[in-house]
From TrEMBL:
GO molecular function, one term: ATP binding
Xref: Gene3D superfamilies: 5'-nuclease, P-loop containing nucleotide triphosphate hydrolases
Taxonomic placement: Bacteria, Pseudomonadati, Bacteroidota, Cytophagia, Cytophagales
InterPro entries in UniProt: P-loop_NTPase, PhoH, PhoH2-like, PIN_dom
Domain PIN span(s) in chain numbering: 11-141
Family the entry assigns: Belongs to the PhoH family.
Organism: Indibacter alkaliphilus (strain CCUG 57479 / KCTC 22604 / LW1)
PANTHER family: PIN DOMAIN-CONTAINING PROTEIN, PROTEIN PHOH
Keywords in alphabetical order: ATP-binding, Nucleotide-binding
GO cellular component: cytosol
Protein name: Phosphate starvation-inducible protein PhoH
Pfam families: PhoH, PIN_4
């Protein structure tokens, strides 16, 4: 954010509740500009302060931060934020305006009270630019209809999402056929003989092509070599294309402790992660497979009938489907089939909502997080920070298929992870492009 040249250029940012629940320290990220918190936001945060979800943590932390910043000051007055380069903040009580959003939109609701706060500042601070900041697209549109500047909270957003498309996998044409032959014969070659002076990313995968043949390869940064990647079975699941082969290699690679797999529905993300986990079950105490609960049709899970298990079953069913698919590769009399049933019964393999996993110590665990695009960056960080010794974490998801209203392809946790951790020696990322579920599913992805 460019610095203001004078006090007149200092803007006033009005924060919506959605911004606070996304990042409790957002109030500190507006450079020397001033920040206003409508009293309605504090009222809404009061409803979120109890609970174990991330939004509850963010609400509590923001309330503590505001209390610390205010000290002995009355927070309805301008109060300095920490640091000489920061502006001021204040909490704005429900004001009287010439224009009332409740009347304009024909309904009294909290969003309209927040709009009224921005309208009041626009009327009283005529020499300064007032901007409403919200993760709620509809609220931003309402603001613009009232001639209020409105924008998304940009801090932490991935600026160039297209760069994530090329992270982790590369195609090289015109490779010396002799080098490819050496990879087939010796399994590995010195990286510089093929990559030359090209920038090398740790745990990157390559499709190497010559005029005569091609080979799949993996860059081992520790040995500075390119290693041949072969298709391998994982609990009788065989990769069907180059990207799936790379993904399974990363899942099975003991050097890699953190894996992300991006791809549209039907590309095999969860299936490969689960098959790889079962293949390595002896290396870990437990296998956890979890996903965040995103209620459908804006209804909380409490709306669903039955006990808590009955309420959550619909959300977990896709994970059980993948497990059943792997199990059905074998006959019921086969020991592999029976082993999966045994692992479930003994809770060596656990499928649960992600909220049930939070707070647990993740030591000696193979942890798969499905639908990771529905997590915030803070949630991703929280999960990884709980990893103990001999733990491997695999995140799967599609950064363009967001099911939560305040996230998008640039601000969700999976995009954040791919952007921030790329090229780390403990991390590997693969994008799956080809759908392998069925020809009908591919038709839907490609044409509908």
């Amino acid at each position: 954010m460019p610095r203001a040249k004078s006090d007149k250029d200092r803007k006033i940012f009005v924060l919506d509740t959605s911004v606070i629940l996304y990042a409790h320290n957002s109030i500190m990220n507006f450079a020397e500009h001033d920040v206003v918190i409508p009293i309605t936001v504090l009222e809404e945060l009061d409803q979120f302060k109890k609970g174990n979800d991330t939004k509850n943590f963010e609400a509590r932390e923001f309330i503590r931060l505001l209390d610390k910043l205010s000290k002995d000051n009355m927070i309805h007055n301008w109060t300095p934020l920490n640091g000489k380069t920061k502006g001021n903040f204040r909490v704005l009580m429900n004001p009287e305006n010439n224009i009332n959003a409740n009347i304009v939109f024909g309904e009294e609701k909290n969003d309209h009270k927040i709009l009224n706060a921005a309208l009041h500042l626009k009327e009283t601070e005529k020499n300064r630019k007032v901007i409403l900041v919200s993760k709620d697209i509809n609220l931003r549109l309402k603001a613009k209809s009232l001639d209020i500047y409105a924008e998304d909270y940009e801090t932490g957003k991935i600026k160039n999402i297209s760069e994530l498309e090329n992270t982790g996998r590369f195609v090289l044409d015109g490779v010396d056929p002799e080098m490819i032959n050496q990879l087939y014969d010796k399994h590995h070659v010195e990286a510089k003989l093929i990559l030359g002076t090209r920038k090398r990313k740790a745990n990157a995968y390559y499709i190497l092509k010559s005029d005569k043949n091609s080979v799949l390869a993996y860059f081992n940064a520790e040995d500075n070599t390119l290693e041949r990647v072969d298709k391998k079975l994982a609990y009788n699941i065989k990769p069907k294309n180059a990207e799936q082969t790379f993904a399974l290699h990363a899942i099975l690679n003991p050097r890699v402790k953190l894996v992300s797999i991006q791809g549209v529905a039907g590309t095999g993300k969860t299936l490969l992660a689960l098959a790889g986990a079962l293949e390595q079950r002896r290396e870990y105490k437990q296998v956890f497979l979890a996903r965040p609960i995103v209620p459908l049709s804006n209804k909380d899970i409490g709306y669903l009938p039955g006990d808590i298990k009955s309420k959550l079953n619909p959300y977990m069913e896709p994970l059980w489907d993948n497990l059943k698919f792997i199990q059905n590769q074998f006959k019921e009399s086969d020991k592999e089939y029976q082993k999966i049933t045994e692992l479930v019964n003994q809770e060596k393999l656990v499928i649960q909502p992600l909220a049930y996993i939070r707070g647990r110590s993740l030591s000696n665990i193979f942890f798969i997080v499905d639908e990771a695009q529905n997590l915030t960056p803070h949630e991703i960080k929280t999960i990884i920070s709980r990893a103990g010794e001999n733990t491997k974490i695999v995140f799967t998801g599609d950064i363009f298929q967001i099911d939560t209203p305040y996230l998008d392809s640039q601000s969700n946790g999976l995009s954040y992870l791919i952007d921030r951790v790329k090229d780390h020696p403990l991390y590997s990322h693969i994008k799956l492009e080809k759908g392998e579920r069925s020809e009908l599913a591919n038709l839907a992805n490609d044409l509908l």
